[in-house]
Amino acid sequence: MKTFRSLATGAVAMALVLACSLTQGSAAGSLTDLDHDTGATQVDTGPNGSDTETAPLAGDLNFSVERLAGANRYATATAVSREFFSPGVPVAVVATGANFPDGLAAGPAADQLGGPVLFVTPTVVPAVTRAELVRLKPQRIVVVGGTGAVSSAVRAELDTLTAGAAIRVSGESRYDTAAALSAHAFPGGATIAYLATGSSFPDALAGGPAAGVQSAPMLLTSRTRLNAATRAELLRLNPDRVMLLGGTGAISAAVAQEVSQFATVERISGSDRYATALALSQRVFGTDRPGVLVATGRSWPDALSSGAAVALTHGPILLSTGTSLPLGMRSELDRLSPTTAYVLGGSAAQSNEIPREVQRRLGVCWSGTRPAAGSQQVISSVPGATKQLAFTLDMGGRLDGADQILDYLIDNQVCTTFFPTSLSANSSEGRALITKIAAHPELFEIGNHTVHHCDLVSGGGGSPSGAPCQVPMTRSFVQHELTDAETVLEALTGMPASPYWRPPYGAHNATVRNWVAEVGYTKTIYWSRDTIDWDPNTTAAQIVSRTTVPAPPAGTIVLAHLGGYATPQALPTIVNTLRSQGYTLTTLSDMRD
Q1: Structural domain containing residue 512
Q2: What is the CATH number of the domain that holds 513?
Q3: Which one of 18, 207, 341, 586 is CB 3.0 to 4.6 Å from 590, fit for a cystine?
Q4: Locate the NodB homology domain: which residues (predicted)?
């Protein structure tokens, strides 16, 4: 059952924790993407878990989750750029995607200069990066790092992709490169400067948006010694305040003391990289942010490429473990109250649990907690649901208008359970629809509607052809209708299909239910209201009436079809009518949660 989130009302809290936020890495060039903090990450287990964070209150109808991802780091950086930057940008900042040091300072510099951060390999401009630069038509390109990071041949190729020139900004080390980039992007100085370790990436990446929103450069230091170029650049910038990122395990007290000789020093840190990111968010960002970026804290490329987006999001980067939200992140999302949460990277970087949990916290509904198989049930409604209704959609035949329905559900935050047949889902038209469903695991879930849409009790039926159903409905045939469909549906969506199944034509009996339960399908989903939208003679007004009149009991399950003839016209009226009466339209799992 949906719980509700409270509105944040307190002032921004300053978090100045002296614990170390990370351990020191090995020498430059030998660090891996996955370095580790000294302590175990505390995971935010959410409203049903053991932590003490407040439960969520009623969500925002205008909220949305958007995943920005590509096949690799180069494509993900391009996806971020396409989301936030239009053609004709004044600059594009290009760094190597092979390692993080040269790029750590790129985000705040790009934000100051007004363009995105894109990646190349040391010797090649990837096709996705080239295509994005062609689209952007930047007035100039800033290449970050020396020829070991970005070769002369690559810089020369980049020179052909701008109306101006591709200029190189670099130094003898990562520290010198960051200082040179600061001097290039902030020629007139800065009132605030950020200082992070150059030995590892988490603190600098989490600090990128904070530096960007404060028009501040990101400079780097070793743990125990302030690099000469960094010191000289701090003196040139002449800041009033220097924000030190991480505890004394990242930047020593001696370095802090040296910096304090020419600026006020403020240290921001937490017990690990996740807590440091939260502390930065609480220190720098107020409430009601337009956007929040969510990146994995276990690798650097996605967060690095998104740093320049702060000009439009005006919000922080928060770090997930890749599979869960760290302790404190849910409450921070409440406080920030973003309109959009951008989840960076594909499911290999951040699993579907990340957008699902963010939606659960901030949205009006979510896809819900999938139940275990458990005992057999025939479910036609969910008693006890708090004025919730499931407008479920079968997908097994006609698909005209389906794209319009899906767009409406996504744009209006209508969480939905779909029951596709595998033949329909895997058709040329169906794959495009299933891809769109799969892109929103925070809003949608699937159940199983078999392979061929046969009447599993009496035989016959079938869609798109009845021929496969002209056989005896044996135990083997019935079970394969579910298991074969499951293989296809889960491969297409990345979502579990079991234990929900909807029998075609509503045809089921104890024998069929026992057979399908043996292969994990214990929840037979029926309905309490039928729109009959599969009938071409059914009007939009009839669909609306059959759904909303009389006022449906809480926990009602409505049967409709993704290819219903008048369903695209009826759906907005249904949603607006029910919401005006205080209903939440959501998934079966959310109602049962």
Answers
A1: 377-592
A2: 3.20.20.370
A3: 586
A4: 387-586
